[in-house]
Amino acid sequence: MPLYEYRCKKCKHRFEKIQKFSDRLVKKCPECGGPVERPLSAPAVHFKGSGFYVNDYAAKKAGDGDSGSTHEKEDKKHEAKEKSDAKEKNEDKPKKPASKKPAEKD
Question: At a CB cut-off of 8 Å and minimum separation 6, what does 28 contact?
Fold first, then answer.
């Protein structure tokens, strides 16, 4: 359930209330009974896991023993796999015998 912040227009008292989305909004201040408003505030969000800039794509410092970001490592893995796949395809193909050119007569 979300935590809503309220502020009294009359006495400036600030308070919070945990409410369902379907609950009615608070209209009166619990301190003085005056009208209240809901000021805008930043939501509390914390991103976890991979896929976010801070975790995966930030450049690593040279002194931390890592050769690059996770994104660069994935690119290198992908390139190595493509090379090995191409090599396997070339090994599977039968080699064509070298064609001999007819000798020129003078």
Answer: 34, 35, 36
